[in-house]
Amino acid sequence: MTSTFSADTKDALAREIPAQPHCRSALRDGLYYYGGASGVAGAEERFRTQRPSVARLAWSLLDDRKERPIHRTAEKRLQKRATFEIRIARPRSPKPAARCDRRMELRAAFLTCGSLAAPTHGYHLEFVPPDDAAAERLVQLLRAEGRKPKMARRKRRLVVYFKDIDEITQFLTSVGAFAAVLRLEDVRALKETKNRIRRLVNTDAANVDRSTSAAAKQRESIALVADAYGLRKLSPPLREIAELRLAHPTETLTELGRRCKPPAGKSTVGGRLAALLRIARELEAS
Question: How many CB atoms lie within 10 A of CB 263?
Fold first, then answer.
């Protein structure tokens, strides 16, 4: 059986059987409601799933298990996966009032018609209920839990989905898929770390570009002053910084300040270079 993030999450949830009888009933009815073929309420039909763990869970919740064995259909060439079926009487499934029962039905919806994308491929959780009525009911249950699902129609079926990681993790937490939540949070933390590193690298690169452009402009201005005025006519501090900038074109203001005698701070070096730029502009204007 193929192992994916979605399949692993379902297998883990399928091993968790609720302790309270009313929660087990809500989970059972939810499994048969979202996983059964459409039909008349109370009529005999079939529950279907491609996960053997979900089939075993659905079967274990039956009161008449011996009369309703799990049937495995042969793999089809296009489908490439076997289907597990259980003959059931379609439940009438009144909407659960208790919060724990609502969450059991939401767990059932995920197990039967939900899928979860691998977090490395993006954040996406979706449900493809068997009919529009089931989709509308699912949306109402999700909204009752404070979730904000989106809906779209795909090949005549209503699809209920989330793309926001916070909505996805809150849903998974509510249905008890804690291992999946931890994995999503790990991936999110890794992505955020990579994004921070990328921003820092981009910021550093931009700072280097700005510093390089500023240093080139300073050298051009100093060359103009040297040709039109002469560096010897400058005050000793300006002459010193001009000669240092020409001799060390790639150094930062702080590094140039360390070479001054006596050493000068970054702001002092910047002020001296700004003075040289003003002199260059005045010489260009004259």
Answer: 11
Angle between helix axes 178-228 and 5-14 (nearest 10 degrees) is 150
Residues 233 and 167 in one domain: no
CA 162 to chain centre: 11
Q: Of 149, 176, 203, which residue sits at a domain end? A: 176
Q: Which domain holds residue 125?
A: 5-176
Model pTM score? 0.69
Quick check: bond before 21 cis, omega within 30? no
Q: How many CA atoms lie within 13 A of 240 on its CB side?
A: 15
Of 191, 182, 94, which Cα lies nearest the Cα of 140? 94
- Residue 142 CA to residue 23 CA, distance in Å, equals 17
Residue 182: inside a domain: no
Q: In whole angstroms, how far apart are CA 21 and each of 79, 88, 98, 100, 150?
A: 36, 19, 13, 11, 32
Q: What is the pLDDT of residues 65-92, one digit of tens each?
A: 777 888 888 665 555 678 888 887 766 6
